[in-house]
Structure formats: C-alpha cells, structure tokens
Amino acid sequence: MNKKQRTLQQNSALWLYFTLVAESLNDAGLDIRKTIELMQGEIDIPWTKNSIHDILWVTIQKSMYGKSSTTELTKQGEIDKIWEVMNRFLGERLHIESIPFPSEEQINSAKIKSN
Questions:
Q1: Angle at 67 between CA 109 and CA 78, to 5 degrees
Q2: In contact, 58 and 50? CB cutoff 8 Å
Q3: Would you say residue 5 has pLDDT above 70?
Q4: For 27-39, what is each residue's pLDDT tens digit?
Q5: Given 18, 30, 43, 63, which residue has the most CB atoms within 10 angstroms?
Q6: What is the pTM for the complete model shown?
Q7: Are 90 and 96 in contact (CB under 8 A)?
C-alpha cells in the first residue's frame, strides 16, 4: 500500500495546532516537566525511532556539542561519544542492557529486510 505524504495544508494545520497547544499549556503554567509528570501513569506512549532521536539523542547531542541536527556531527568522534553517554544513561538509570552501535553488516541486513 502506497501511502501519500500529508499535504502542505495538513502540515500547516499540524504546526498551528502544536503552537496553540504550546500557548495553552504555557498560559496554564504547565511547563514540560509538570506536564510529563501529570502524564505519568495516565498515558502510555510507546517509544519510536523518532522519539528516541528527538527526546534522547538530540538532547544529549545539544548538551555536548551545541548541534541541533545529526547532519552537523563529525564523521568520527562525536557520534561515538554521544552513543557512550546515551548507552551509559540507558544502563545506569533505566537498567537497559548495552545496545551496540549497528555494524555495517546489520545496516545492510536491515536494508534487505525493508525492501
């Protein structure tokens, strides 16, 4: 099934909605931490690759290097260091067993499966 991408009008509507929700939460004095605290136990939100990127990886990346996009990271060094910090956090705070950075073989295997 070939799903079409959202329209420009839908995209504009999404971002306007996000803006309106942000304004409402701020007007109510509900910052991000307070809102997340209220959500705990109330809403089960599964992780996705996008939420891992946006919430965990980019937070660490910005803190360490002041870079907002993964495209800005240096080829060697920065990605490894961010992975180390994230992996340590997952292990020490969340008790998630170490997740190795994908090898070239794993990447190629994943590409084959998705085709």
A1: 55
A2: no
A3: no
A4: 888 788 877 777 7
A5: 30
A6: 0.64
A7: yes
- Per-residue pLDDT reduced to its tens digit, 43-94: 777 788 888 999 889 999 999 999 999 999 987 789 999 999 999 999 998 8
Computed on alpha carbons and rounded to an integer, the radius of gyration of the chain in Å comes to 18
- Tell me which amino acid residue 83 is: W
Tokens encoding 45: 């939100």
Q: How many CA atoms lie within 13 A of 93 on its CB side?
A: 6
Count of residues in the chain? 115
CA 26/CA 10 separation, integer angstroms? 24
Let me know: does 58 contact 68? Beta carbons within 8 Å: yes
- Report residue 23 as tokens: 């304004």
Amino acid at 59: T
